[in-house]
């Protein structure tokens, strides 16, 4: 059973533990009272909502306490990185409303300083070139309870180390033949201190520095120093870096002094039910075309959520609700959806669309008549005004809204019963026509002219209200209906291939959705609407003048309360 927690832990002033730490540092005049954070994505994939949790903290806390936040691309591995990712990352951060101004940096800018520092450490007897294979090195690491074994190259003369390191960088040796290691302690209880690798040979050209470098620094040797070179005071990251912190401090001490020293603080990752956050897995889904690209609306990527119709404010509200803690958790996707629904309820324009249409004929309504019915654009916000919707003898209604032999509590259309057509009339169902296979092709009803919306007769009590679209003016649109990407709650916790856990029904394409003409005329890419009784929908960029495409953003029913009850049990 996975532990699911969605709670915010804040003190009496509403500050989470990171904010409390930073406030204290500022009050104590640490680093001259400066606050400078950074968001350090590796440009090897698109950002997902977990990254948003990280950069909302990095940029948000700087804003809150009058500091600054750098955007630094951690581009230390040329084998996996690409400018496509750099541009996408910038776009997504801006979408959530943050800006790094002129503070855009790259770890690769520091390659010269890092190389010099590595040579200095060699000269001081703190680093050596190891010629063993990575398997040999791994086999000597020991375990948390057993000490490791010293490399036979550990006590190589300094001059030899210097010479080999220079030649590694000159390209004289093949990838995997040697590494530069820090000479620390092979029996340290922290495994990261057992002579960690500082540099490896990579011959793939780097997208920024070309083939200038043949050795590339490892994360642990690059990150703290990059923070230092940039003047970062607080390096906020996720909990998996807790065991790296002593090493962060060890390397930073090679540079820092009492007047300025960056500090690492860790918080819990965002994990969401029914999806995965690993960039490696997301990349695999994209490459193997198991989804339609990084911005597939089923993906937890920011571009996917944007295409789906999620709003920046809903994402921020969700992150605010789950908060920042020091223990790992799995968050309910229903809470994210709840935030989206709350936001869209306030802002989305209401329109009519029938997703699974069947024809309703009002036998007593004149054939050539059209009335314009006035519809609220948003009953939650009457200042949004109204729009006109044509009403005619032939209407589309939802197939599911009719039943010939309904169960007891069915309050929609059925022979002999009245229902209200939203914003129009009360109608009485009088019959139904079927084809030879028994499929309903048409439903007949009569309308009561006294019950037009706004007239006193409209007050008559009827149980059901149905949405509808006039047949002669309806426009056909495509709707892409999404469900959970994965069929299981916590795919990362399952054994076996994660791809086998994908939900095979996560995308349903509806080609014949009938939408009202006002919507067809005005809809533009990225706009969000509420289709009455169906949910929230967002216009997809694949739309063109011949065909509108909508992504279902989220249904109307709030499943969050239900989830809460379930987990309270
Ligand atoms: P990898 O390092 O495996 O490529 P990553 O998701 O850690 O993947 P980075 O580009 O290193 O990717 O992440 C940038 C920042 O985002 C890091 O500081 C990391 O801690 C943070 N981050 C990544 N995933 C999450 C998550 N699920 N929740 C919160 N923060 C995250
Ligand atoms: Mg990372």
Number of contiguous helices: 14
Q: Describe the biggest sheet? A: 7 strands, mixed
CATH superfamily of the domain at 279-349 and 477-568: Ribosomal Protein L25, Chain P
Shape: elongated
What percentage of residues falls in helices of 4 or more residues?
25-40%
Which spans of ≥5 residues are poorly predicted at pLDDT below 50?
A: 1-6
Description:
It contains 14 helices and 25 strands. It has 569 residues and is an alpha/beta fold. Among the domains are: 107 residues, Glutamyl-tRNA Synthetase, domain 3 (Alpha-Beta Complex); 163 residues, Ribosomal Protein L25, Chain P (Beta Barrel), CATH 2.40.240; 122 residues, Ribosomal Protein L25, Chain P (Beta Barrel). A seven-stranded mixed β-sheet has the order 10-23-24-25-21-22-11. The protein has a seven-stranded mixed β-sheet with strand order 19-16-17-18-12-15-20, with no helix packed on it. Helix 7 packs across helix 8 and helix 11 crosses helix 12. The chain is elongated, with a radius of gyration of 31 Å. The N terminus is likely disordered. It binds adenosine-5'-triphosphate and magnesium ion. Adenosine-5'-triphosphate binds next to helix 2 and strand 8.
Task: Provide tags for this entry.
Ribosomal Protein L25, Chain P; alpha/beta; elongated; Glutamyl-tRNA Synthetase, domain 3; 7-stranded mixed sheet; 569 residues; disordered N terminus; binds magnesium ion; binds adenosine-5'-triphosphate; 26% helix
């Amino acid at each position: 059973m996975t532990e699911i927690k969605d709670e915010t832990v804040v003190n009496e002033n509403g500050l989470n533990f990171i904010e409390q730490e930073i406030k204290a540092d500022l009050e104590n005049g640490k680093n001259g009272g400066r606050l400078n954070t950074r968001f350090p994505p590796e440009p090897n994939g698109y950002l997902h909502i977990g990254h948003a949790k990280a950069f909302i903290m990095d940029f948000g806390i700087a804003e809150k306490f009058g500091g600054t936040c750098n955007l630094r691309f951690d581009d230390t591995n040329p084998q996996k990185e690409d400018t496509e990712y750099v541009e996408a990352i910038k776009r997504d951060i801006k979408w959530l409303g943050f800006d790094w101004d002129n503070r855009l940096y790259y770890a690769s800018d520091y390659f010269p300083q890092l190389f010099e520092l590595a040579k200095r450490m060699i000269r001081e007897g703190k680093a050596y070139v190891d010629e063993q294979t990575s398997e040999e090195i791994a086999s000597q690491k020991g375990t948390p309870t057993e000490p490791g074994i010293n490399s036979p190259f550990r006590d190589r003369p300094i001059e030899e180390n210097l010479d080999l390191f220079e030649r590694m960088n000159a390209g004289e040796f093949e990838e995997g033949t040697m590494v530069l290691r820090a000479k620390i302690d092979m029996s340290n209880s922290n495994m990261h201190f057992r002579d960690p690798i500082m540099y490896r040979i990579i011959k793939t050209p780097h997208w920024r520095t070309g083939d200038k470098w043949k050795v590339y620094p490892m994360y642990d040797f690059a990150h703290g120093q990059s923070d230092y070179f940039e003047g970062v005071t607080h390096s906020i990251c996720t909990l998996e870096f807790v065991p790296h912190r002593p090493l962060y401090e060890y390397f930073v001490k090679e540079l820092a002094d009492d007047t300025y020293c960056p500090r690492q603080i860790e918080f819990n990752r965002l994990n969401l039910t029914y999806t995965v956050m690993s960039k490696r897995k997301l990349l695999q889904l994209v490459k193997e075309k198991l989804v339609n690209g990084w911005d597939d609306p089923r993906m937890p990527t920011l571009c996917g959520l944007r295409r789906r119709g999620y709003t920046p404010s809903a994402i921020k509200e969700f992150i605010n609700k789950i908060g920042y803690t020091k223990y790992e958790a799995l968050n309910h996707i229903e809470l994210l959806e709840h935030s989206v629904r709350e936001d869209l309820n306030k802002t989305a324009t209401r329109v009519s669309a029938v997703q699974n249409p069947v024809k309703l004929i009002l036998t007593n309504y004149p054939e050539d008549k059209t009335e314009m019915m006035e519809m609220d654009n948003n009953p939650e916000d009457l200042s949004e005004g109204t729009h006109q919707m044509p009403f005619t003898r032939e209407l589309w209604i939802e197939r599911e809204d009719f039943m010939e032999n309904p169960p007891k509590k069915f309050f929609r259309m059925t022979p002999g019963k009245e229902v209200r057509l939203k914003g129009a009339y009360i109608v009485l169902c009088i019959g139904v026509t079927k084809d030879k296979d028994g499929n309903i092709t048409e439903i007949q009803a009569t309308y009561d002219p006294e019950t037009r919306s706004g007239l006193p007769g409209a007050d008559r009590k009827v149980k059901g209200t149905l949405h509808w679209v006039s047949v002669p003016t309806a426009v056909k649109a495509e709707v892409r209906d999404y469900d959970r990407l994965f069929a299981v709650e916590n795919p990362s916790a399952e054994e076996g291939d994660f791809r086998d856990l994908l939900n095979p029904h996560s995308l349903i394409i509806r080609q014949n959705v009938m939408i009202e003409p006002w919507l067809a005329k005005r809809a533009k890419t990225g706009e969000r609407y509420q289709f009455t009784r169906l949910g929230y929908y967002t216009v997809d960029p694949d739309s063109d003048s011949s065909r509108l495409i909508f992504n279902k953003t989220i249904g109307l029913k709030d499943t969050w309360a239900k989830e809460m009850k379930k987990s309270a049990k």
